[in-house]
Amino acid sequence: MHEGAGFRWFRRVALTVIALLTAAPLWVIVSSSVRPLADVRGPFHWIPRNVTLQPYLDTWSTIGLGRYLVNSVIVASAATVASVVVSVFAAYAVSRIDFVGRRAFGLLVLSAQVLPAMFVFLPLFIVYASLDRWWGVGLIGSYGGLILTYLTFSLPVCIWVLTGTFSGLRRDLEDAAAMDGLGRVGTLLRVVVPIARPALAAVAVFSFALAWSEVMIASVLTTQDTRTVAVGLQSYLSAPSVLWNQLMAACVISSIPAVAGFLSIRRFVMRGWSQPL
Amino acid sequence: MADRSFTARRSHRFTGVRGGARRWLPYALIGPALVVELVVHVVPMALGIWFSLTGLDRSTIGDWTGAPFVGLRNLRTGLDPAGPIGAELWATLARTAIFAIIVVTVSWSIGVVVAWLMASEFRGRSALRVLFLVPFAVPGFVAAIGWSFMFSRDYGAVNQLLVDGLGAVSDRPFWLIGDNAFWVVAVVWIWNVWPFAYLMSSAAMSAIPSDVHDASALDGAARWRQFWSISLPLIWPVNAVVILVMSLWAFNEFGVAYVLFGPRPPESATFVANLVHGHSFTDAAFGVGAAMNLLVAGLLLIGVLTYVRIARRCGWCSSWRCRCWAPVPREGRRA
């Protein structure tokens, strides 16, 4: 298609501006994380004058990053696994079986997705406290409460995306499996799940990223010992004297899982999530 | 034998699972999802409605079943624009709505224009694709912390650029206190979320058949004309959802202000979620907090339903019930 010179110049200028605005904060974070303390305690320079990897070593003891990272990894991984498993079964039922209450379930999932966290989080806190008092199920201050909450936050999107994916799959393989005597659950696990792997990877990354960066629930459901990295870094940020180079190093380290995950599912995301594979 | 099981299974597949033993299967499959949604969403929502009618506070929170019933008193306290709590709520609601309109408009516009500019091949496109994905992949708390460093008054990158670099401002502004805090949250939000609009629009645009553009190019349509008259209307169904999702995110924004300023942000950066969080966990007026929640939820529901009605109107032919969303537009539509 013909592209005029005017359009090409407009594109060049506009994309350069947007790219600079996008990249500048990334550059500030990454470049500050390799500067000595003196360099982040003075006027800002875009080009670092001294480069050192020391902040990446010191940040573990200064901020206590290790503890936070372990907590976040445990919570986010468990929530991701649970969310993917639960949503695979639910999405398969919704996309393949016609049962009474299917529409109602779909509506429930949709409204749970629209329902913001702030409407449930105070009553939820009271529910968890009551579960603890009545039945001794400790959900406040433990990993369990966070895992259960994040699981339900990502579940609606996972079910939604997977239902779309499953509905778009060709059925002849499933028919063949059924003909060979494989039951419904066997068909799901041995035929459908392997074909839908890219979609599963995508919803897994989504669930993980959601649990990894959630702040509101984590700020009330965690104690000193179970703080996730989001709340941990926030509490360090509000400390009286912040060692910025080490905090930036901690930011880089705690971004790696989410960024790597998103880059790995880039192709799937580019196709708009629910496209058939 | 094999034959019989085959026909039995086929009948399951075509009639749905109606036959005896298999009737429970779909319920077993959705069971876990249903249970956790009930525990974390449905039960708390119902309890929230109950709490809004009771005088739940610090003394009754231990045994909340015994909290006294006060009827609509909380609702009146929470909504009365003349009272201190009601006035704060309405001001915060207005601020949150303005915030949502600004950040959604800006991030959506950037996203759509960038998606349009990135639609055709040019040098450096694949590198930019990766770069534009990164802000969305970066966790929100990292974005907030990074920008917080950039916005610090004396040694931040923003003031370095504005004051020392460009000389646009003579006095170093304080960004993280007072009214400027609102704009800091807005900038962080836009930087973090605009790639979402870009990704979704990009996917939708690549689904437009290229012959639509070729035909309009033959007819002499300029680039920007193609953008306004073809790309934008054709991807409207996707954008309608994108705008809705981003608006909900913006209206419920909590994390950026919390990470930047802690549990008590400056007034200009206090949004509805921060206010509710504050009332619930620092003031302990749980009944009033629940009543506020109910009001906000109601307003949000009205907003979403109105939006869904309006968004149904086609961006291409302005008809309320059209079939323009079919991939290739038919003849006779307004261009």
Verbal overview:
The complex is a heterodimer of chains A (277) and B (335). With 277 residues, chain A is mainly α. Chain A has a single domain (65-270), classed as Orthogonal Bundle (MetI-like fold). Helices cover 76% and strands 0% of the residues of chain A. Chain A has helices at residues 5-32, 37-40, 54-63, 65-96, 102-114, 117-135, 143-168, 172-179, 184-195, 197-213, 216-221, 229-237, 244-264, 266-270. Chain A is globular. The relative contact order of chain A is 0.15. Chain B is mostly helical. Chain B has a domain at 92-311: MetI-like fold (Orthogonal Bundle). Helix content of chain B is 67%, strand content 0%. Chain B is built from 14 helices and no strands. In chain B, helix 3 (73-79) packs across helix 14 (286-311), helix 4 (84-117) runs parallel beside helix 8 and helix 6 (140-150) crosses helix 8. Classes of the chains: A mainly alpha (277), B mainly alpha (335). At the A-B interface, helix 1, helix 4, helix 5, helix 6 and helix 7 of A face helix 1, helix 2, helix 4, helix 5 and helix 6 of B.
Short description:
Chain A is mainly alpha-helical. Chain A has helices at 5-32, 37-40, 54-63, 65-96, 102-114, 117-135, 143-168, 172-179, 184-195, 197-213, 216-221, 229-237, 244-264, 266-270.
Enter the CATH topology name of chain A.
Answer: MetI-like fold
* Average pLDDT of chain A: 84
Number of strands of chain A: 0
Separation, N- and C-terminal Cα atoms of chain B: 63 Å
